[in-house]
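Re: [help] complex structure
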Amino acid sequence: MNSNHIVENLKREIENFTAQVKVEKVGKVLEVFDGIAKVSGLSDIKSSEMVTFPGGETGVVLNLEEDAIGVIILDDFSKIKEGDTVLSTGKILEVPVSDNILGRVVNAIGKPIDGKGAIKADKMYPIEKVAPGVVSRLSVSEPVATGIKVIDAIIPVGRGQRELIIGDRQTGKTALAIDAILNQKGQNMICVYVSIGQKDSKLRKLQARLEEGGAMAYSVIVSAGASEAVALSYIAPYTGVSIAEYFMDQGKDVLIIYDDLSKHAVAYREISLLLRRPPGREAYPGDVFYLHSRLLERACRRNEKYGGGSITAFPIIETQAGDISAYIPTNVISITDGQIFLETDLFYKGIRPAVNVGSSVSRVGSTAQIKAMKKVAGTLKLDLAQYRELEAFSQFGSDLDDATKRQLERGKRSVEVLKQLQYAPVKTAHQVVTMYALTKGLMDDVAIDKIKEFEQGLSEYTERNAKVFYKQIAEKKMWDDKGEEELKKVIGEFKANFTKS
Amino acid sequence: MSAISNNNIVEAIFLASKESKEDSQFFHKVVHFLAKKRLLSKSKDILQNLNKIINEAEGKVMVRVFSHKKLDENTRKEITHALSKRYGGKTIILEESLDEKLLGGYKIEVNDEVIDLTIKNKLEKLQEYLTIVS
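Output below.
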């Protein structure tokens, strides 16, 4: 484009332009501190409305008082001075959304931060929205295949469910979530990962990992880093869910991960205390429950009449020394439809993912589990519970009857089967075969240290040889007598070969 | 009970002043009261609010006009006329200030409302528009 052309273009644009002058409401900055501004004037302002400062910084109104308002500043606040004029915009804070956002990393206000250029926005979505009502909802009945055996078999998650991942630091909470994202390839699922107050190095690693696994093609990362303003940490999850809603409005299924909501609560506590709202338990403000409930309520499954689509949420909570009865964990446990509880002890025992099967539940997921999996894994939870009881008991004596011994052996194998490496999601059909072999006792005579090898070999062998069974699982989610017969025969063949070698 | 705000105090002073018009000692008493309640540090805000309340009660609107050069009589009349229409026939009191940076036109401030008719504002709007378009 030569310079003449540019000038011509500009001329045309200037001719088209008409300056719209309207009455604007203005306020004056009374004080600025720690990312908060007190502003006078602006008499007709709404709560959570956007305001702009002279330097182009944006803020969100959070407190409405008699003669001043409290504004949280979303940008660098060091250039804002006392006496600056503040303009209201008349708009609730909104984020740009479009299909181009897939594969990108954006910050809490939807601006790209991955250095891949601007994202052209199709629409603006307000970050605060009332969750869909009862009429537009549908109960959870479609599974989310996480590819993690212990979750898919024992704590199944359905589309539209909210399943909490809770545990101490370094127990593999994020790893679980990332594995779930990696397994969504080809499952018709969009993933949104919201990182709240995390180290940028961790985010970078995660992004690289997702790119390597080809998962960024259907994922968005929303990041509010630890070094950014605390207000951004506060709004990041709402931005994430707004992006998710954009895809849900197209009838798509979305998986959203909030990593983690304890940091979100801490960010909100900081803002609230600075705004001089009265502190409550653990110094959190009174509406910290509503903070999370209104966020998680936006996860839903809508019926066809209202456009379909779903948002499945995996909020993550970090506990201190396994204390799940602290304020925020209990709040979020009561909001969600179940929790996956990770334990340090299990982690160091080598049981990874370190899921405590006893205290983990999925309150609505069982209706979403595929029939075949329900059939094979139905007794697994009970087996494991009994095993744990017997395990403690059996340490006192060696004179155990055969039934007890059998149960112990089965339990040990169950635990072994449920172990899984990171970044290695397992296909649902493979899981069904493994669980089938386990619960039918076909693994009882395999040595424990050979279980992993057996499982691996079995999956490969059956996929090649039990074609009928695999077809049935893929199509009908259940086998019939013919498929089962074939599977039994193939497992028998494999075992014969396996024990020989 | 919530804390007593400046507005409450101002309103009280205003009402009291209406009742005790003859009392020459009234403002002396007010200052005394403020000193006793340790509110003298807020006297600036209180005075400002008092002004606002009195203006409202007397049907006056304080208007600040910024322009890059002195307003002529015609414009002044026009502004007064337009504003008194807008604010329901109240008396308009103009307070003029000069600001070279506005380049042209004028800017009107009424309480927390601003009507910006300056060239500067229009140029800024144009800049904004052009960056969005291109």
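The two ends of chain A are 72 Å apart (CA to CA).
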